[in-house]
Amino acid sequence: MDRLPTRVNKADPDYSTRREHNLALIELLRERLDLVHKGGGEKYVERHRSR
C-alpha cells in the first residue's frame, strides 16, 4: 500500500505543542475508560450491588 503524502513539519513548535496536548487527552481518555470498565468506581459498584 502506498503512503499518503504529508506536509506535517515535526520540527515546528506548534506541532510539538499540539502533540503534547493530544497525548494528555489520550491519557485522560484511557483513565476514564479504565474507570468505566471498573463499573464507575467502588462507590457506584456498591450502590448497584445493594439494589
Q: Summarize this, please?
A:
This protein is an all-alpha fold and 51 residues long.
> Shape, please?
elongated
By DSSP (H or I, 4+ residues per run), the number of helices equals 2
Low-confidence stretches: none
**Biggest sheet descriptor:** none
Number of strands: 0
How would you sum up this structure, described in words?
- This protein has 51 residues and is mainly alpha-helical.
- It is built from 2 helices and no strands.
- It has helices at 13-37, 42-50.
Features:
single chain; 51 residues; mainly alpha; 0% strand; elongated
Helices and strands in order, then pairings?
Elements: H1 13-37, H2 42-50
